[in-house]
Amino acid sequence: MSNAYDVIVIGGGHNGLVAAAYLAKAKKNVLVLERRPIVGGSVVTESFGDGFDVDSVWTGGTLRPDIIRDLKLELPASTAPTAPLSARSPFISLQSDGNHLVLDADPVKAAESIKRFSEKDAGRWGEFVRFMDKAANVLDITYATLMPRLPRNFSLEEGYGLLELGLDLRLMGRRDMLNFIRALPMTAQELVEEYFESEQLKAALASVAIHGSTLGPMSAGTGYTLIHNWLNRGGPAHVNVGRAGGITQALAEAVKACGGEIRVEAEVASIQVDMYKCKGVVLANGEEIFADTVISAADPKQTFLSLVGPMNLPPEFVWKTQSIKMRGSVAKIHLLTDEGHGIPDGTVALAPSIKYLEKAYDAAKYGEISKQPYLEVTSVPVRESAKESVVSIHFQFAPYALKHGTWTPRQAAAVERETVERLAIDILADHFVNLKSSIVNSRTITPHDLETIYGLTEGDLNHGQLMLDQFLFMRPIPGWSNHKTPIDNLYLCGSGVHGGGGVSGAAGRNVIKVLK
Amino acid sequence: MFELKRTPFHERTSKLCLPQNWRRWAGYLVAGSYELTLDREYWAIRNSAALIDVTPLMKYIIKGKDASRLLNRVVTRDMDRLKVGQVYYTGWCDEEGKLIDDGTVARLDETSYRLTSAEPNLRWLAMNAVSLDVEIREVTDSVAALSLQGPNSRAILNRAAAESVDGLKYFRLMQNKLDEIPVTISRTGYTGDLGYEIWMDAEDALRVWDRLMEAGADYGIMPVGILAMDMARVEAGLFMLEVDYTSASQAWIEPQKSSPFELGLDWTVALDKPGYFVGRRALEHEKRAGSAWKLMGLEVEWEGMERLFKEVGLPPQIPGMAVRESLPVLVGDVQVGYVSTSTWSPLLKKYIALAHLQRPYYEAGTNVRMEITVEHHRQHAAAKVVKLPFYEPEWKKK
Questions:
Q1: With contact defined as beta carbons under 8 Å apart, do B193 and B347 qualify?
Q2: In chain B, at which end, N or C, are there fewer CB atoms within 10 A of the end residue's CB?
Q3: Residue A412's pLDDT is what?
Q4: Listed residues A233, A263, A297: the one ending a domain
């Protein structure tokens, strides 16, 4: 085994693997270093030793179609954003009377369900979907455009990309362009209220906006996160749920097929910097590996504050990196169940009203676990045609920073962990009476687990909150939005940079453009 | 209501400051001069001994396992070479290699240092201390400081202090006692003469003052204000923040900023020290590419000045103190720089100035013209570019 490479990629999550696959395809001698025994990062399907496979963190994902095409990935057709409507699973918003709102991927079918809540809303659904699809498309193009390093730098080269983006924006048509720009800073509540009157539909959409963010539907900028999640899911529902790890497994295969190397259980302890040039990495076991280029798919805080170290970085940069808002507040509860829990297929949300969601978020503001949380539930058979299935519950809000109590694995932490698990099961059991009796086993992942096991600082699924002051040229921090860092030959490609957030691979793809 | 702070010596200085010539310095009130003209105070610095209250200097104690790592990261000099009991003069820069401030770093023991600066730097120090095991404490108010400058300063200290300062070398410090009062004495100053700075607890300030005045009586000691020091520091080629350069953290526009190279501090930029320090990359680049500006001395030709004044029927008018006014410097009719401080040097009998000059006009020997005002009319006096300092007595370092 050689210990010098063209490129080292730190972190074998989806973005790291996308970058590595592109590089391997370009005949670069590339090495991916993954801390865990399995690649995938937070897009992983794994067993916790009790035999049942779980989508630990992300329950689904849609790599950008150009990535699938470029890398010739063999993914189930239904996980592509271009999947036919008939192959997609629905979004189901639970109602206490059992009269659930079902948003089918087919707008006509969805309108039928909406009609039960509001005739008027049903009539506007098609228009809303068209706008959201258009807005998501422009966001997709934005995410493929390198941002200028404002306010530090603005080169002509960087300007061209923006010109193209401006043109695409204009091609939306004057009205949609203005609506798009206007939607970004709006609250999700305001945005959906411009279209709809029924609380059930508005809340269902608002839940998509706040999914994964520590924001409520009345927070500014949730118009943007609604479009962002719409883009990354291909609509309100995950295009397909379960087996998200298949995405990263396919990417790992693509890396290896092109001659790239992947090492698991290879934790990077530090990025080696000589003056301000990156030389390689040192692993936790002391092994030194050299490379001309190092790309970190870890989040910016982890990359700079712990791997590079503040002493190797300019003070203003350190200060700004420290100020990146992470603030994770998601817990995951996985239940192994026998048949008969009664939870339908698809993306099932507990989001009865906008106020309910906002109150769930209020708890997070004060460092408390939501007593009445927003839940998103998916259930997947443990294996094909098996009766048993895994019910995965996305629990919001369980803030990383608790005012009372602690997530750290001590006595007290067990209490918090059980609180979240019990709350999730109890609340869900109100809707599915057979759920409790169907549970065979359970496993809860706290925000602290997300940090320690999956390397997500403060348990933030997006490597930095998707907020208006942390997007476009301000992601990860102003002046450093185009994957470059103050260290020569060190680049970022994780979710924490522009294009990142969610499971799209855009950040991993984009970094290739700045590597020269 | 906003009120300027009074130094621990105010009890004495306020009774001595007969012309009520008070100046502001870093939020403190200090004596500009103790007499109506500066002559006697200036000559005390150069001929006998001057006692100057320099308490307003910002002072920081930097202490802990990583104290030298923090300083090595912040300042441009190599802190690994600074021995216990030694003092370094140094500047520190922002990431673009532009000077933020300058001052001295004294190594008090293995893991503690005292940093002085002109402007507050606590936030900057804290920002640079992320992940370091170090304590940063501002002690500006609790540590009083006196500067004893002039050829007689050594004899006075030897008379006043418990231990002789004969062995105290230039830019070294020692612990000593004056009347049983523990003090730190460093052989440093801002006049370019033989001189010392005495650091003490603020509570002991008056007793130290009295002891020095008493011991110095036979040696011509005089309380001296900061205006006479201002003349002396120009002769010594020493520049001042916010007068001769603008801090990178205060500048409105890029051209207002200066690099250490541009201010002639090449010797303080240790590009041979290991690892990153703030501004290193930009400084390396400037070192290779050369500097666009340089701080040099200017000597105004007396005959030319005399002629200009003679035309209006006057003898040459010279300011009685250092002038902190920007004056254009020209070659032909093209402006090639500016003077930031100018003064009459009573000792050299020359009109001298600190000038910022553009390449290639900063070479010593270049003939330039400096703007002077003759009876309300702008005129230009011939001047020559010279190396700094203007004045360096052999006893400064001996």
A1: no
A2: N
A3: 58
A4: A233
